[in-house]
């Protein structure tokens, strides 16, 4: 999925434009309280092309002086984006800060589309010609708050997306390691890529820093570790900020089939862990909970059990995710990881036969009758699997409103008891039978 980054000095309207293009995707992740600028990473779609979108204005590094902040935001755009939307404001004309941003963007080897915002009416649109002086070709007049001109802008952006035709599709298992700084992601990468594994290649992605690493395990199964370079490096100031690392994690999740959600056994669970885990769950990815630094704990025969209970309580919606307790330092249980990733990837794209599925559903209903709401009983006629990654089932019923959440969960549990869907969320959709 190509990435667009919105960049520009403060108050030109970046977050207004971001929210316009984003549309409305409400989620448990984005509802998390205490996030000032509510979100900086999302998806958008224009005429059938989907993309991810970053509001670099939301990456602020605290007390840095103004010019340093906008420099860093422009650098994030250069690092992360396939196409950069450089926003200026027709109300103020070309300012020194705009020129500063332009200078940084000249050095980027990335397409830049210039958006002149706050062009709310036709008269003011005459004034966009001054912006040719910034040197990014045609300025696109838009109004973020009125939603004007965004179509033409997005047409230009999509035209500038890199050509993907030449890239060979492969069917290796794509996975990423996600977790807070210091949980041991880089150490796990190094341990997983250790001597006994053949590294096939580093694949340069469409963006400079997104480097995927391919390897083959003992059984010949091929894996692609997504954004390995992003895990390994840590230098620039913004790379240490929480919002940047959350954004980076969301991007990696979007590009993976299976997510290894890494926790630090020594430190337990934090709010940031919950945000990324919630995002991976909602994105419908396969998930494995990896508890790292298991060597660092003093243990008795209860420790593992207690730790598991604690994690299960904190992440109830991840009940389907297997947990593995490892050490990047001693390599404890690391050998089991590739096979586990493979199992989860297989379950994530598993298809079950309609006949067997319907036997399971009908038996489930016989054992535990459907709910009765105000004298009306839910009737279930037929179920069928309509998609994989994640497995998605449509259940045809007399009235979808009669399907209670708890009964849907009962059906999900029955499906899970009969088919192995370890590690993958499954989606159930009710449809009224015509
Ligand atoms: P950011 O700092 O670049 O993210 O800018 P914001 O999106 O927070 O917008 C800064 C201010 O400009 C807010 O008061 C917005 O309401 C206003 N604004 C944003 N877009 C437009 C626009 O198209 N026209 C006008 N007149 N005001 C806008
Ligand atoms: P990242 O920020 O998630 O990539 O974490 P790193 O891989 O950089 O590891 C952070 C620190 O934890 C480093 O000092 C590592 O040596 C240490 N560390 C990583 N894995 C383990 C482990 O399994 N056991 C112990 N005891 N320390 C570890």
From TrEMBL:
Cited function: GTPase that plays an essential role in the late steps of ribosome biogenesis.
Protein's name according to its UniProt entry: GTPase Der
Sequence ranges assigned to domain EngA-type G in this UniProt record: 2-165, 173-349
Keyword annotations from UniProtKB, A to Z: GTP-binding, Nucleotide-binding, Repeat, Ribosome biogenesis
CDD domains in the record: EngA1, EngA2
Transmembrane regions: none
Annotated positions binding GTP 2: 179-186, 227-231, 292-295
Gene for this chain: der
Residues involved in GTP 1 binding: 8-15, 55-59, 117-120
GO biological process: ribosome biogenesis
Alphabetized GO MF terms: GTP binding; ribosome binding
């Amino acid at each position: 999925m190509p990435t667009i980054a919105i960049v520009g000095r403060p108050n030109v309207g970046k977050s207004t434009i971001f929210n316009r293009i984003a549309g409305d995707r409400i989620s448990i992740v984005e509802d998390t309280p205490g996030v000032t600028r509510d979100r900086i990473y999302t998806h958008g779609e224009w005429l059938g092309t989907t993309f991810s979108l970053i509001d670099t204005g939301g990456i602020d590094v605290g007390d840095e002086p103004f010019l340093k902040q906008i420099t860093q935001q422009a650098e994030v755009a250069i690092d992360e984006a396939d196409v950069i939307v450089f926003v200026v404001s027709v109300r103020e004309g070309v300012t020194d800060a705009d020129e500063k941003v332009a200078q940084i963007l000249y050095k980027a080897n990335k397409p830049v589309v210039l958006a002149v915002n706050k062009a709310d009416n036709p008269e003011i649109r005459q004034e966009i010609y001054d912006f040719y002086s910034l040197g990014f070709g045609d300025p696109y007049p838009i109004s973020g708050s009125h939603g004007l001109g965004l179509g033409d802008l997005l047409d230009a952006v999509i035209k500038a997306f890199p050509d993907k035709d030449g890239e060979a599709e492969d069917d290796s298992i794509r996975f990423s390691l996600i977790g807070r700084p210091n949980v041991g992601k880089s150490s796990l990468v190094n341990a997983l890529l250790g001597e006994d594994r053949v590294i096939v290649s580093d694949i340069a992605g469409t963006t400079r820093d997104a480097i995927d690493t391919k390897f083959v395990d003992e059984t010949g199964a091929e894996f692609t570790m997504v954004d390995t370079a992003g895990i390994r490096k840590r230098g620039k100031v913004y790379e240490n900020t929480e919002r940047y690392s959350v954004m980076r994690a969301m991007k990696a999740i979007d590009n993976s089939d299976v997510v290894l959600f890494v926790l630090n056994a020594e430190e337990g669970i934090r709010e940031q862990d919950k945000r990324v885990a919630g995002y991976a769950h909602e994105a419908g990815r396969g998930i494995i909970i990896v508890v790292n630094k298991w060597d660092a704990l003093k243990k008795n025969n209860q420790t593992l059990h207690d730790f598991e209970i604690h994690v299960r309580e904190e992440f109830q919606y991840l009940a389907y995710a297997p947990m593995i307790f490892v050490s990047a330092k001693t390599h404890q249980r690391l050998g089991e990881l590739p096979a586990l990733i493979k199992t989860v990837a297989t379950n994530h794209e598993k298809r079950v036969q309609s006949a067997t599925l319907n036997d399971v559903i009908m038996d489930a209903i016989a054992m535990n009758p459907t709910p009765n709401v105000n004298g009306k009983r839910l009737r279930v006629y037929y179920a069928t699997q309509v998609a994989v990654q994640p497995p998605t089932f449509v259940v045809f019923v007399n009235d979808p409103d009669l399907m209670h959440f708890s009964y849907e969960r009962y059906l999900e549990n029955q499906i899970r008891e009969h088919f192995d869907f370890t590690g993958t969320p499954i989606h159930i959709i009710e449809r009224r039978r015509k």
